[in-house]
């Protein structure tokens, strides 16, 4: 059997990969005469070639039909969300009624918090994890202040109880139970952005509901990365972006989930005309009648040019299948971990859990020699055409993405790190 560190071994794994053809559907930035080794899909996914055609199609419709493009042509803009509702729902394990593409992630988070964070009396606290993505922290802090509450006493920041900034399920359960009578809402990630740890959405939801609180989730690093079952989990709401693993482009349109049980609840919201039921939307009446389900939280008409790349990307996910993508992800990330532990264990510390059920594509790495050496390694990799990303204070994230990354990419990245170590 060939060594895992041989190119022949990695190339054989790539040749046997049933998803290998998808790589050719993406544009890769160049490094000299070669393609970059791009391990940064957790931050911004690569461009599917089909995205260019999808946007061009809408530009053509605009140029040829102008306002009539809303009603005529291959994809009338009035019904543009219809084409992505089912694949979007399938991707996150939801009913079509429960999902919508709209706005951007933090805007959607504010819209969800406006409806679902309803502090009453002593039940006025909101729980997030310590080290939450800054935008989430800013959003919940401002929501608390909007309600006249002091975040110092009403924002609970759950501290990690395990090494490397990780959380045990038991600690999350205990924190929710501890604050149960005063807790209005729990907001946690599906995948923690700095460590890459996957959290148990169904278990967190059950704990939150048992305490009388709402359960919401930020799935920015989970959607398109790990299998999701939002409907079955019982989560009240979730929000996510589409420019990471979903490859819909920089600043792409985001998405939201609202559980079916809230579809006709009449829950208060910040309303806009596109959230009005479609049958009477163009009657232009002043009274607001929300569309049932997640679409009732829309504020403005859909951005057609931003939706086009997402449509192209979701078609790829449907053809590949999330199950096959997950199978490859487990093997590909496992290969990266195995190589690091065998060859670089004295140089790199892996923060991300080893259990595949507790991680997706991402491995978060810390150089044992300290931040300065870590930053030096990061810059070395960039200079050699290997793209990951850096998260302060000292974490390098590498994410071998199954739609377009190969085993040979992983091997060459590890060999480059070994070369850096030899000259450091």
- Annotated CATH homologous superfamily of the largest domain: Type I PLP-dependent aspartate aminotransferase-like (Major domain)
Distance between the termini: 32 Å
Widest sheet: strand ordering: 6-12-11-10-9-7-8
Given the structure, what is the number of helices? Answer: 13
Unreliable runs, pLDDT <50, ≥5 residues? none
Number of strands: 17
Which architecture of the largest domain does the CATH hierarchy give at level 2? 3-Layer(aba) Sandwich
Q: What integer value in Å does the Rg equal?
A: 22 Å
Order of helices and strands: HEEEEEHHEHEHHEHEHEHEEHHEEHEEEH
Beta-strand level of the residues, as a percent range?
5-15%
Shape verdict: globular
Query: How much helicity do the residues have?
Result: 25-40%
SS-based class: alpha/beta
Topology record:
Layout: H1 7-15, E1 26-27, E2 30-31, E3 34-35, E4 37-38, E5 47-48, H2 49-65, H3 82-92, E6 99-101, H4 105-116, E7 125-129, H5 134-146, H6 151-154, E8 155-158, H7 169-178, E9 183-189, H8 201-210, E10 214-218, H9 230-233, E11 237-240, E12 255-258, H10 304-320, H11 322-343, E13 348-350, E14 363-367, H12 371-383, E15 386-387, E16 389-391, E17 395-398, H13 407-423
């Amino acid at each position: 059997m060939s060594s895992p560190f041989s190119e022949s071994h990695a190339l054989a794994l790539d040749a046997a990969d049933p998803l290998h053809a998808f790589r050719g559907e993406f544009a890769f930035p160049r490094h000299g005469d070669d393609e970059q080794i791009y391990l940064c899909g957790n931050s911004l996914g690569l461009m599917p070639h089909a995205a260019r055609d999808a946007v061009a199609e809408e530009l053509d419709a605009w140029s040829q039909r102008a306002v009539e493009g809303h009603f005529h042509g291959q994809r009338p803009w009035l019904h543009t969300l219809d084409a992505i509702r089912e694949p979007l729902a399938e991707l996150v394990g939801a009913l079509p009624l429960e999902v919508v593409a709209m706005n951007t992630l933090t805007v959607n988070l504010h819209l969800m918090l406006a409806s679902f964070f309803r502090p009453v009396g002593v039940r006025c606290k909101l729980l997030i994890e310590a080290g939450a993505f800054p935008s989430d922290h800013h959003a919940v802090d401002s929501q608390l202040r909007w309600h006249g509450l002091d975040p110092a006493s009403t924002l609970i920041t759950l501290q990690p109880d395990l090494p490397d900034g990780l959380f045990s399920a038991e600690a999350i359960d205990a924190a929710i139970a501890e604050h149960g009578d005063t807790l209005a809402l729990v907001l946690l990630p599906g995948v923690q952005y700095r460590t890459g740890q996957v959290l148990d959405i169904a278990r967190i939801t059950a704990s939150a509901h048992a305490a009388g609180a709402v359960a919401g989730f930020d799935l920015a690093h989970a959607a398109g990365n790990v299998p999701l079952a939002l409907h079955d989990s019982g989560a009240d709401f979730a929000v996510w972006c589409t420019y990471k693993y979903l490859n819909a482009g920089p600043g792409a349109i985001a998405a939201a989930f609202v559980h079916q049980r809230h579809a006709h609840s009449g829950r208060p919201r910040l309303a806009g005309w596109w959230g009005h039921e479609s049958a009477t939307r163009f009657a232009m009446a002043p009274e607001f009648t929300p569309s049932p389900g997640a679409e009732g939280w829309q504020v403005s008409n859909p951005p057609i040019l931003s939706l086009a790349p997402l449509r192209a990307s979701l078609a790829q996910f449907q053809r590949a299948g999330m199950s096959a993508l997950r199978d490859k992800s487990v093997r590909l990330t496992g290969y990266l971990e195995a190589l690091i532990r065998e060859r670089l264990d004295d140089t790199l510390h892996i923060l991300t859990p080893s259990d595949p059920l507790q991680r997706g594509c991402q491995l978060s790495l810390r150089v044992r020699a300290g931040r300065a050496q870590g930053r030096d390694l990061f810059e070395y990799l960039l200079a050699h055409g290997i793209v990951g990303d850096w998260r302060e204070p000292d974490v390098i994230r590498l994410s071998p993405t199954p739609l377009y990354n190969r085993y040979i990419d992983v091997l060459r990245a590890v060999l480059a790190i070994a070369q850096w170590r030899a000259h450091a």
